[in-house]
């Protein structure tokens, strides 16, 4: 790799990506027209101007509002297809994609519409874009945990596309323990488990998600850095963290990228990865995030290689697949 290629994308797994968060303003407006859904925005430019947030809740309000344009299977197919095309150009070779079934059910869109629509794009993703895909439906933490328990058996029907479950939405005041039962049942079914924790919520929620939900990765987890005992545990257990730098700045969890804890996480020996979260809303896809933190934090090529390697080790791919991708990273950046 020459110095000019210093910022070229490395083969990476995207492990923290909400498919609904890839809804670009142009596609939102086109789908609104196709489905005769009225939006309170005049066009893509006005909509893009609304993609400014003061915190997580202000983003979630718009994110849930705009889901109204997703009505039919082909809307979900088009959404996923657009993401895969962009992600492939940014070095993504495998994606474990989040989806919010309860948000769609609550507005009258059946599960089949969501999963069949996404499944259509994902079925040909490897062949068309060189990206393998799996799906992780997430429960909304503001809703009754009993609803998540009722939904779980219906999600199992979509295996093997569905490989696990997650926990998302506004964190504060909704500790992980509330969802202990549904996560235990998912574990009994052999599903993988992840949860958003330590994004806006405190470091204790990271510990609680590990202890009560048995999660295998922490989504975000940046507030773990406020508690040395949590950092020590994450390091000792090499728990992967799916960090989303542009998201943290857009939602004001971090003031400026230059203040982002990603480098401190790597320095502390944590298994951090970089991901895009809701890229249409936060100003960039996976490699945009990597390039931005590389500049803001002065990451070395060796640190970028570590991020890519961490993504493969943290993925839920079979070991042979993981090793094949790790070899591709090594070939792209020979170890110094
Ligand atoms: N960054 C985020 N945090 C919590 N829930 C989300 N749902 C979509 N994006 C999210
Ligand atoms: Zn997220």
UniProtKB/TrEMBL annotation:
InterPro entries: A_deaminase_dom, ADE, Ado/ade_deaminase, Metal_Hydrolase
Keyword Transferase: no
EC number(s) recorded for this UniProt protein: 3.5.4.2
Reaction it catalyzes: adenine + H2O + H(+) = hypoxanthine + NH4(+)
Keywords noted in UniProt: Hydrolase, Metal-binding, Nucleotide metabolism, Zinc
Annotated cofactor note: Binds 1 zinc ion per subunit.
Adenosine deaminase domain boundaries: 11-329
One example GO MF annotation: zinc ion binding
Residues that coordinate or bind Zn(2+): 16, 18, 196, 277
Binding site for substrate: 278
Catalytic residues in the record: 199 (proton donor)
CDD domains assigned to the protein according to its UniProt record, in alphabetical order: ADA (cd01320)
GO BP annotations, alphabetical order: adenine catabolic process; hypoxanthine salvage; nucleotide metabolic process
Function of the molecule: Catalyzes the hydrolytic deamination of adenine to hypoxanthine. Plays an important role in the purine salvage pathway and in nitrogen catabolism.
HAMAP family cross-referenced by the UniProt entry: Adenine_deaminase
NCBIfam families on file: aden_deam, PRK09358.1-6
Family: Belongs to the metallo-dependent hydrolases superfamily. Adenosine and AMP deaminases family. Adenine deaminase type 2 subfamily.
Protein name as catalogued: Adenine deaminase
Gene source species: Petropleomorpha daqingensis
Lineage of source species: Bacteria, Bacillati, Actinomycetota, Actinomycetes, Geodermatophilales
């Amino acid at each position: 790799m020459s110095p000019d290629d210093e910022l070229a994308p490395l083969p990476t797994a995207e492990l923290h990506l909400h498919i609904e968060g890839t809804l670009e303003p142009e596609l939102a407006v086109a789908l609104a027209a196709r489905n005769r859904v009225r939006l309170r925005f005049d066009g893509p430019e006005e909509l893009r101007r609304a993609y400014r947030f003061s915190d997580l809740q202000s983003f979630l309000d718009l994110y849930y509002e705009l889901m109204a344009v997703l009505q039919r299977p082909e809307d979900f197919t088009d959404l996923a297809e657009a993401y895969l095309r962009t992600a492939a150009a940014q070095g993504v070779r495998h994606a474990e994609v989040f989806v919010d079934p309860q948000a769609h059910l609550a507005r009258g869109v059946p599960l089949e519409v969501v999963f069949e629509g996404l499944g259509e794009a994902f079925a040909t993703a490897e062949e068309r874009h060189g990206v393998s895909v799996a799906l992780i439906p997430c429960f909304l933490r503001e809703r009754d945990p009993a609803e998540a328990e009722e939904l779980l058996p219906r999600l199992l029907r979509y295996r093997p596309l569905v490989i696990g479950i997650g926990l998302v939405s506004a964190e504060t005041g909704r500790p992980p323990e509330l969802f202990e039962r549904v996560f235990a049942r998912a574990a009994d079914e052999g599903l993988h488990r992840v949860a958003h924790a330590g994004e806006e919520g405190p470091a204790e929620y990271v510990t609680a998600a590990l202890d009560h939900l048995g999660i295998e990765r922490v989504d975000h987890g940046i507030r773990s850095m406020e508690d040395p005992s949590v950092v020590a545990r994450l390091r000792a257990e090499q728990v992967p963290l799916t960090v989303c730098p542009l998201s943290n700045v857009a939602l004001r969890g971090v003031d400026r990228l230059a203040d982002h804890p990603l480098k401190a996480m790597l320095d502390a020996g944590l298994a951090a990865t970089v991901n895009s979260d809701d890229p249409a809303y936060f100003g960039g896809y996976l490699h945009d995030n990597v390039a931005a933190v590389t500049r803001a934090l002065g990451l070395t090529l060796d640190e970028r290689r570590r991020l890519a390697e961490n993504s493969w080790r943290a993925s839920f791919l079979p070991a042979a697949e993981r090793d094949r991708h790790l070899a591709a990273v090594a070939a792209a950046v020979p170890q110094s």
